[in-house]
Amino acid sequence: MALLIDPNQLSELLAGPAAVRVLDVRWRLDRPDGLPAYLDGHLPGAVYVDLDYDLAEQRAPQDGRHPLPSLPVLQAAAQRWGLNEGEIVVTYDDWGSMGASRAWWLLRGAGVADVRVLDGGLRSWVDAGLPIEHGAVLPPEGDVVLHEITAGVADIDQAAAWPDHGVLLDVRAADRYRGQTESIDPQAGHIPGAVNLPGTEQLHRGRFRDVDTLRAGFADAGVTAGTPVAAYCGSGITAARTALAGALAGIDVTVYPGSWSQWSNSPGRPVATGDQP
User: Fold this and answer.
1) For residues 82-109, average pLDDT
2) CA distance 135 to 123
3) Beta partners for 169?
4) Which of 155, 172, 201, 267 is the most buried (most CB within 10 A)?
5) More confident position, 8 or 58
6) Quick one: pLDDT at residue 225?
7) How many whole angstroms separate alpha carbon 112 and alpha carbon 86?
8) Residue 111: which domain range?
9) Origin, by domain of life (predicted)?
10) Terminal-residue alpha carbon distance, the chain
């Protein structure tokens, strides 16, 4: 089943008979509230998704900045978006498919069979000369039924033990991995045993790189056939995008949602610095 969709394919899909729900998941570190940008212009029929409150829950710092939403929270949100059983879901954003990948990962994990990410996001749609709409889209409540996310997710203890049997990827920028800088979380460094594979390397001009390049990047980080792979980032957003990159490359990537924001807020957890695991 397709994981990505390009603007022209999406335009054709929307014009056809298939039931499609488009989700606008605009979020970025410097502007976490994407609603104003959404109201200013979005894909036709797209429903706004609040990453901080629909795709995460606000808890204590020890849980990380974007802990997984509970099943009731996620299902209520999905039904509010108008999502119905059997619909194709297409997610997009305007920041390197970050929010879109988080929605893709959560919905796939919760049982939605067909979820695709608009490759290149809003910019690719606009560059293709396709129309945008303004204002809010408020669909009738949907009937989708989700289930608990039990596969492809690791907790803090599993992340700590992961390097003993597989490859744990830290997909933050190299300077944060090395502990040279940290402007968001309380400690600088990385989880001992983690290998750095910056998530930015998986994109080129806002789009995912080709399959061979993605596979080569994972291989350079020590991922070989049959290797159990898990990924973390600052708060579980870029790690979800790495899970999508892995899926494109035929590699199953488990996500540690608590990521560095949870690890660095948990007393007693060891911290490594430098460019080695």
Assistant:
1) 98
2) 18
3) 195, 231
4) 172
5) 8
6) 87
7) 8
8) 4-127
9) Bacteria
10) 35
Indicate which CATH number applies to the domain containing 98.
Answer: 3.40.250.10
Q: Which residues participate in catalysis according to the annotation? A: 233
pLDDT in tens, 151-202: 999 999 999 999 999 999 999 999 999 999 998 999 999 999 999 999 999 9
Average pLDDT score over the chain: 97
Question: Is pLDDT above 90 for 1?
Answer: no
* Mean local confidence (pLDDT), 41-48: 98
Domain limit, last residue, from 108, 127, 146: 127
DSSP-assigned letters across all residues of the chain: --SEE-HHHHHHHHHSSS-EEEEE---BTTB---HHHHHH-BSTTPEE--HHHHSS----GGG-SSPPPPHHHHHHHHHHTT--TT-EEEEE-SSTTHHHHHHHHHHHHTT-S-EEEETTHHHHHHHTT---B-S---PPP---------SSB--HHHHHHGGGTSEEEE-S-HHHHHTS--SSSSS-SB-TT-EE--GGGGEETTEEPPHHHHHHHHHHTT--TT--EEEE-SSSSHHHHHHHHHHHTT--EEE-TTHHHHHTTSTT---B-SS--
* 81 alpha-carbon distance from chain centroid: 18
Vertex 276: Cα angle to 275 and 277 (nearest 5): 125
Residue carrying structure tokens 């490759």: 119
Torsion, Cα 56 171 5 46, to 10 degrees, reads 30
pLDDT at 32: 95
Identity of residue 164: D
| CB-based contact 228:59 (threshold 8 Å) | no
The answer to whether residues 108 and 195 belong to one domain is: no
Q: Are both 9 and 116 inside the same structural domain?
A: yes
pTM of the model: 0.97
